[in-house]
Amino acid sequence: MEDNILDDIRKEDEVSAETEDTQRKILYGKNGHRLATSPLAEKRIKNAQEKYSFTRRISQENYHLHKSRNKQTKNEILFITDELVKKITICTNQEINRQKMKYKTQQFYRKPTNATQLQALFGILYLSGVLKDAHLTIKDMWSRLGPPQFRGTMSKNRFEFLNNCLRFDQKTTRQEKRIADKFAAIRLLPLQLPSFGIRHNR
């Protein structure tokens, strides 16, 4: 819609310019530039300002509309809601605290995570699939020759640690749940699928 409006405005400018050429003397340079012997009419300047403000308003409205839609659907593309991310964050932090006991020294990449960082982790996994980098090792993905998006999001050690500690359930109650449900470790994910119109059978 915006492109059509801009095309109409350009056509109107061309028509008005041709009409103005007949009313006042126009000189053409060798490079094709037009030089007028008298200043532009006040009416044309006013119309140009109105058209500029109109197109700018249309662009801003489209920008805010796209921004609101993007904010609403950024997690839905991955079939992951904010509520699900919070639950995964709790389960993952429990596993992080459990694995931290194995190490004598504490490293910066072994600290607990949050919802924002987990969303970044899911984004890296999603982007690696889009770029078809499944055949690459983590070392290759974080090398200087690899995509800069991975290195710019988090360090290689942090990605490996979070990927290793990523959990979708509480490990302390997994054995009890597994008696009735073999997929207890990942049951949290299929439970969210009906909200996206996807059926699952238990």
Query: What share of residues are in beta strands?
Result: under 5%
Structural class: mainly alpha
Number of domains: 2
Count the E strands: 2
What does the model show?
It comes from Popillia japonica (Japanese beetle). Residues 78-188 form the PiggyBac transposable element-derived protein domain. This is Transposase IS4. InterPro entries: PGBD. With 202 residues, the chain is an all-alpha fold. The protein has two domains: 2-73; 77-196, no CATH class. Helix content is 57%, strand content 3%. The protein has helices at residues 2-23, 42-73, 82-100, 115-130, 138-141, 148-153, 156-165, 174-180, and strands at residues 26-28, 34-36. It has a two-stranded antiparallel sheet with strand order 1-2. A hairpin with a 5-residue loop joins strand 1 (26-28) and strand 2. The relative contact order is 0.08.
Topology:
Layout: H1 2-23, E1 26-28, E2 34-36, H2 42-73, H3 82-100, H4 115-130, H5 138-141, H6 148-153, H7 156-165, H8 174-180
Antiparallel strand pairs: 1-2
Helix pairs in contact: 1-2
At a glance:
This protein is 57% helix and 3% strand. The protein is an all-alpha fold and 202 residues long.
Key structural traits:
202 residues, mainly alpha, 2 domains, two-stranded antiparallel sheet, 57% helix, disordered C terminus, PGBD, Transposase IS4
